[in-house]
Amino acid sequence: MAFKNNSKLFSKLCSCCGKANVHFGKHKRSQHTTGAIIDPNNEAIFKKVLIANRGEIACRIIRTAKRMGIKTVAVYSVADSQARHVKMADEAVFIGPSSATESYLNIDKIMEAIKQTNADAVHPGYGFLSENTEFVRILESRENVAFIGPSAEVISKMGDKLESKRTAMDAGVNVIPGFDQIVTDAEHCVQIARVVGYPVMIKASAGGGGKGMRIARNDHEVREGFLLSTQEAESSFGDSRMLVEKFIENPRHIEIQILGDQYGNVIYLNERECSIQRRNQKVIEEAPSVFLDTTTRQKMGEQSVSLCKKLNYSNAGTVEFLVDQKRNFYFLEMNTRLQVEHPITECITGIDLVHQMFRLAKGHKLNIKQEDVEINGWAIESRVYAEDPYKNFGLPSIGKLYKYKEPNGIPGVRCDSGVEEGSKITMHYDPLICKLVCHGKTRKEAIEISKQALDSYVIRGIEHNIPFLRDILTQQKFIEGNISTDYLPQVYPEGFQGITLGVRDRHKLVAVAGALYATNELRSRSFINIPDFKIRSGKAEREKWKLFIRFDDNEEVYVNVAQTNGQFRIEVAANVFCVDKNEINLSSPIMELTVNGTGNVVQLLSWNASGEYQIIFNGNNYKFYILTEQASNYLNLMPKKLKKVKLNKICAPMAGLVKLIFCSVGDKVIEGQELLVIESMKMQNFIVAQSNGTIKYVNFNIGDTVTNGDVLVELE
Amino acid sequence: MLVRLLKNHLKISAKQVISRNYVETAAHSIKTYEKIKQKREEAWTGGGQHKIDTHHEKGKLTARERILLFCDDDSFVEYDMFVEHTCTDFGMDKMKFPGDSVVTGHGLVHGRPLFIFSQDATVFGGSLSSVHARKICKIMDQAISVGAPVVGLNDSGGARIQEGVESLAGYADIFQKNVLASGVVPQISLIMGPCAGGAVYSPAITDFTFMVEDTSCLFITGPDVIRSVTNENVTSQQLGGSNIHTEISGVAHKSFENDIEALLQLREFMGFLPQSNKSPVPIRVCDDPCDLDVPILETIVPRITTAPYDMLDVILAIVDERDFFEIMPKYAENMIVGFARMNGRTVGIIANQPKVAAGCLDINAAVKAARFVRFCDAFNISLITLVDVPGFLPGVHQEHNGAIRHGAKLLFAYAEATVPKLTVITRKAYGGAYITSSSKHLRGDVNYAWPSAEVAVMGAKSAASVLYKNKLNIEELEKEYIEKFASPFPAAQKGYVDDIIEPKTTRWRLCRDLNLLATKKLENPPKKHGNMPL
């Protein structure tokens, strides 16, 4: 609870639970649990809001709406029929197939749902229809339903790159120096470059995805770059028009949250630093930024306010800037919606942004003055994604969360998520599982809380990026605040490889593994209804184990485990570790083990009788084999087996009708990928690839009948 | 008193030392001692170091190494180490190995005793002599009288040809013991090398047959015989390797990558089994809470009734620690069977797999499940049946191959079983397959239905087309049928399911029911034995 006592008459957001409160005089702890937003002025509120979104943001909006006393309507697709946001809302409307274009992006379906439920407001969340001018225009044309966000005109203006830049310039906002018209030829380009100042970025007008873009640091490079980019643009886009602007080296991505009402009042709620990105997607955000001094912050804030005033902007919005190493900042774009990372602003300012959005859309005046906006402590948001972080900083992973526990018990932790135990992560939508928001008094404390929360997070059933998030938070450069948008490729030039432990920590991990193995062995012989069978006294219960542990990276360690006085004493090389026996519970998803007096968070993910163990040790995954010394010696006698032969022919497992085909000749497919659906006995059966490969033949068409054993698809 | 006696004895001994007679006696006993030591050493090296090396080169452990790895440390007690074969023909009298081609005895696995034999392929290729058979029979007799499982590690070239009919008699003795022990103590065979000819029938009679990949094979007539008789060219792996028997023939219940994995997994497997038909089912210490809801069970069955899902997800969510030892995972995959624990107590799980062939019952699935049900019933292991079955697989091939009598096996097995029978209908339970699947009508003790359950004679479409042949508004009538029968209500109203339960409550309900039913007493009418439709 890092708030100062105050008597401001606007809702405050609790840093630990994310619940909003109004603070009358003294802040009371008990208010956090009740959570209803009582408006002292008895302001009018919307009666029923439809949330045209899904997942965590839908849940987030429903939470505030409920506290305000607004009825909520969720919309859902097939894939989301059992989703959390559907259960949370007062009403739920089914809007179609799983594919977003046929459901959450389908304006007609959403309009139909609004009509059906008589909602008088629509909150778009982020993504989907949140910045869709057509949708907003339709809503504006209706009298009885409000769009919670700015006007269609503003959205359209800010949605256009060139136009937003011009508007910003008009409002006196710094923009990246450059030539906002088409460059005629190489010499023209050199002239502009000299005016703008080196280095410059030459980019195709029609560009995207890095194609037709080049950085030039002198006249020579400009000439060369211009020609190459022109050719590339011509071949890639069929449009060779070129733009040129100043290139910002090692920039930071810092954005300003603003709130505006319909009466021309605009305030800024300070900044969020979102420099840790991969593939232009944010991974970790924090507020405030270590980089901004008061003057820069104020200048950025004031320019943002001036842009919004120019636009007549009402509701919440975010102005994004690039900030160079000398604290020069340049307008990038404006997002006319609630941002994913809004909770960190809520933490440090104590303002519930969703509450304000409802108020402002209802036509109320801003009830916060600029001088009341404060920075209270430090907040860090880590985006927990369902993805494999070891591949290209994250490739989506789908599956079911058979075990899922958020670290909500830790003070200062707020989890904004749209999933719960049992939820399915599908291929249809964003792989975001949860926004883990940690609020501390200082940045250091926020980092510590984040690490603790990540370690205590239990996610089973899918791959996730927690090891990656945790590693970023422990990097020296991050701790120093020395970050930029190039941070990830700079710190992980080879991609994320997992955390490499020092020898001592490695041995500690091995000790934990040994203790787990010994516990398992002891348990295998503890039957409640069968007495111990003793052959010779003292020999019946094993007291000592000589173990051999082989890691995934082929490192091999010998370990001696002995049990004494309720402890396992484990010798690894020259080190001795003691682990408390009572702290080990093989059924528990998470264990806190004291090893030589220090606490370690351990999660046993899986194990089997062949000795394969998979554990999370202090936030990172490890796979290894544990065998007795005897078994490992015997294992050396076993031949190393070759990888299994590829299964190139995929046969029908039954007679039936080919209902759908997801692949065509030449497609690259991976093991487990669904290739086609056969309907048989009124059941759809997914036929999956049994190995990686390229499709050579697809032997049937949709509607064909197949019989058991027919070769459906051949791979090569 | 004792001390004095000893002293006296020593005095007398001292006098006798002078006697020459005694020197001879002493020399004889020393020689005996040495001979014992020497024979033991010989026995320990089986067919000799050279043979052991070639055996290792094939990627196989020796008979003794296998026993040492399988049993708890220092727990193996060997029988008949000095037994030698009795054959004198073909120069066999000059080739004798103490213990002959099998190591037998008893040991502990996770602290519980069992009897074990391990055939030694380094001695005459592990071939079965009359004494080899006698050694095996000896431990089997004792296993039956003591009430402890028998584990056989098979690695044998076949009959000892030099012994002729004596060897065959040996096989017959083993088969007879196998049959007598069946249903009395669990019998497990792990095939770790060749097992050919008549020898295959011993594993075939035992309760479970496991195989080691690449190094083991099972067949009645080998590749050579097949080549000479039918001109077919086939390798022994193609003929009877682990792939064949775990996927196609259904002879073996599971296979493992190598000897080490096989033995370690077999140790784990033994933990599920009771010692005998008179022993209680083992209850292991359990830390996994059995009184909590399991939320994931709510989201496994898709809302679209024709969409497939993985029944393994349901099983793993219900059992302790998601620990499930699946039997025959690659054979008749439309049916899942295996062992797990519920609140520490071993249970047998039988479940339809909607992901494969819609989970329908066919010949292979029925036979697979029937044998498993009978094993569990024989050894007091409670049965948990998860039902999502659209019916028996229709088809000419199925009918012509006797789907009727094979399906009847499963029906027979369930109806005959007297152990606690718990059933959960997760979705479809249609027609005869519904009755067969541990229904209330077959003395099911507790039968639950999830809200997604549909208990009916057949699917709505088929039902409508039978009932309203040639009617135009068939779709409407189909809808009517769905309204009426595609829900758990009709069965619940008749009391054929005891309750409609929230899926997430399944685990704790079943655990509670198992506790309640632990004292269940039910006996079939006395008879010599039933006449199961084999």
Automatic annotation (TrEMBL), chain A:
Superkingdom of the source species: Eukaryota
A Pfam family cross-referenced in the UniProt record is Biotin_carb_N
Q: Which cofactor does it need?
A: biotin
Where in this chain does the record put each Lipoyl-binding domain?
642-716
Q: Which residues form the Biotin carboxylation domain?
A: 45-493
- InterPro entries from the xrefs? ATP-grasp, BC-like_N, Biotin_carboxylase_complex, Biotin_carboxylation_dom, Biotin_COase_C, Biotin_lipoyl, CPAse_ATP-bd, PCC_BT
One GO cellular component term: mitochondrion
Cite the GO molecular-function annotations of the record. ATP binding; metal ion binding; propionyl-CoA carboxylase activity
Q: Does the keyword Transmembrane apply?
A: no
Q: A Gene Ontology biological process annotation?
A: lipid metabolic process
The entry's keywords: ATP-binding, Biotin, Ligase, Lipid metabolism, Nucleotide-binding
SUPFAM superfamilies assigned to the protein according to its UniProt record, in alphabetical order: Glutathione synthetase ATP-binding domain-like, PreATP-grasp domain, Rudiment single hybrid motif, Single hybrid motif
In this chain the ATP-grasp domain maps to 165-362
| Matches recorded under NCBIfam families | PRK08591.1
Q: What is this protein called?
A: Propionyl-CoA carboxylase
From TrEMBL, chain B:
Q: Tell me, which GO biological process terms does this entry list? A: fatty acid catabolic process
The terms under GO molecular function for this entry are: propionyl-CoA carboxylase activity
Please report the stretch or stretches of sequence annotated as the CoA carboxyltransferase N-terminal domain.
29-285
Domain CoA carboxyltransferase C-terminal stretches: 289-528
Pathway(s) per entry = Metabolic intermediate metabolism; propanoyl-CoA degradation; succinyl-CoA from propanoyl-CoA: step 1/3
Q: What is its EC number?
A: 6.4.1.3
Q: Give, as one word, the top-level EC class.
A: ligase
Q: Which domain of life is it from?
A: Eukaryota
An example GO CC term for this entry is: mitochondrion
PROSITE patterns, sorted: COA_CT_CTER (PS50989), COA_CT_NTER (PS50980)
Q: Which chemical reaction does it catalyze?
A: butanoyl-CoA + hydrogencarbonate + ATP = (2S)-ethylmalonyl-CoA + ADP + phosphate + H(+); propanoyl-CoA + hydrogencarbonate + ATP = (S)-methylmalonyl-CoA + ADP + phosphate + H(+)
Per UniProt, subunit arrangement is: The holoenzyme is a dodecamer composed of 6 PCCA/alpha subunits and 6 PCCB/beta subunits.
Report the family membership: Belongs to the AccD/PCCB family.
Q: What is this protein called?
A: Propionyl-CoA carboxylase beta chain, mitochondrial
Organism (species): Ceutorhynchus assimilis
